[in-house]
Amino acid sequence: MSAVNHRLLLVHAHPDDESSQSVATMARYLDEGGQVTLVTCTLGELGEIMLPEWQHYTPAELGQHRMSEIDEALREVGVNDHVYLGGPGRYHDSGMTTGPDGRAAVPDTMPDNAFWRADLLEAADHLVEVIRDRRPQVAVTYDPHGNYGHPDHIQAHRVLMYASVLAASPSHRPDLGAPWRIQRIVWNTHNTQRWVEAYAIAKERGLELWPEEERGADSFGPDPAQIVAVIETAPWLGVCRRALGAHRSQVDIEHPFWQFYRIMQELPGSGEAYLLGAGEPFPESDAPATCLFAGLDDEAAAC
Hints:
There is one protein chain. By secondary structure, this protein is α/β, with parallel strands linked by helices. The chain has helices at residues 17-21, 23-31, 59-77, 120-134, 151-168, 192-204, 237-245, 256-266; strands spanning 7-12, 35-40, 82-84, 97-98, 104-105, 138-141, 184-189, 229-232, 271-279. The chain has a domain at 3-188 and 277-300: Rossmann fold. The chain has eight helices and nine strands. The strands form two sheets. Strands 3-2-1-6-7-9-8 form a seven-stranded mixed sheet, with helices on both faces. A two-stranded antiparallel sheet has the order 4-5. Strand 2, helix 3 and strand 3 (82-84) form a beta-alpha-beta unit. 44% of the residues are buried. GO terms for molecular function: metal ion binding; N-acetylglucosaminylinositol deacetylase activity.
């Protein structure tokens, strides 16, 4: 059955998250004729501004600017179904601080409409309406820790996981559409082994990365045995780089981290990795699946 029946929903916290984590995935299913819907939860008003000439932006001005950046990025990818959760600006970037352990943490102060403070039922219902309208078979978001602890990533995870349950219930908000069950939810994650390999190459080239510690494989991502699917980057590498480059306020491609990231993308077998979050398991295999729809029924146009 043609992949034209694939319907994919992605839920990301800020503009640029989709371009650093999900571009190859989106590009692949669009190229195969599938439907791709991206939901962005905030405008990223409190993102760290990388370019000196834009340091004067207020949070509101930065949010408006980042809307234009994500529009440019999505044109590069070909995504034409982009939704802001609850409408543009309904939820404000919560910001992030660094805790005593050096990890991302919830800041002490944030705007009243910060996404972290959102009523979970209200936010989930905004997504329920999207789910019931688009009827995705597969959905993508972060793991329960937001991958690295950003509060908005954690909240995006909570909203999708709750909305997926509510959307499938015939008793919940029939005014939001007919019930729909997402068959599989996956959580984006680091492709651990490729990150380990790229880190070694970066060190050989003299890039200053995490000089405070010698990193082991377990600090780059999950146990590779937990990774259930990898969408290869190579066929869409140019698209990935153009989309990420569109987010100029947030991404300085000359920064050592992004140089490291480019090294990682070029490694054989590199790709966007996923954990199984909920729903139908992938077919048993000694290697991660190469399609997020693998093993689903005919309605999902399984790979």
